[in-house]
Amino acid sequence: MRHLVLAVVLSLAAVPVLAQGVREYRVLATSKTSTMEKEMNAAAEAGYVYSAVMGGETAFGGTEAVVVMQKNPTPSAMAYTLLATSKTATMQKEMQAAADLGFEYVGQTVFSSMFGGDEVVVIMQRDANATARHQYLLVATSKTSTLQKELDEAGGAGYSVVGMTVSKTAMGGAELVAIARRDR
């Protein structure tokens, strides 16, 4: 009888731990940023939030962006926008325009576009309950020494680096692309 009581107590004690540790995921993969944005927003409506992104060759899909979304334990109204460009100046303008609408940077990757060259893809998320607004700075250079100098300057102005990729641009060179943000 003691063993039965002990087994019941142990099993009941384990239930909350297992329930807390359970995670649900949704994996999205496509070669078009517009399709990915639609799929991410559909997943958000089903209660999922962004978790990770990677771009590149997949075994059967060719060149794709793959996004992992995780079921949000505390539901909130999320929306996503994806920005893709091979021009860094354009990306910074688009990121700031999205930030002005309440979107916040959550991830970035690089994958080959249908038009040749690589594109930096930035994922931005808007939480309907969030009030923070940020200012974004995109630093792109082919030299690590220049990146060091520019990031030191950005840090002096209050920016924190939130992401970085290496991209071969349509202009014909490999660039380190760092994204930094600061509170307004």
Walkthrough of the structure:
The protein is 32% helix and 44% strand. By secondary structure, it is of the alpha+beta class. The chain has a three-stranded antiparallel β-sheet, covered by helices on one side. Mean pLDDT is 82; it is low at 1-18.
List the helices and strands and how they pair.
Layout: H1 2-21, E1 25-30, H2 33-45, E2 48-58, E3 62-71, E4 78-85, H3 88-100, E5 104-112, E6 118-127, E7 134-141, H4 144-156, E8 160-168, E9 174-183
Antiparallel strand pairs: 1-3, 2-3, 4-6, 5-6, 7-9, 8-9
Instruction: Give the topology string: H per helix, E per strand.
Output: HEHEEEHEEEHEE
Report helical residue fraction.
25-40%
Q: For the CA atoms, what is the radius of gyration?
A: 21 Å
**Neighbour order of strands in the largest sheet:** 1-3-2
Query: Count of helical segments?
Result: 4
Instruction: Give the termini separation.
Output: 65 Å
Number-wise, the strands total 9
Low-confidence stretches: 1-18
Structural category is: alpha+beta
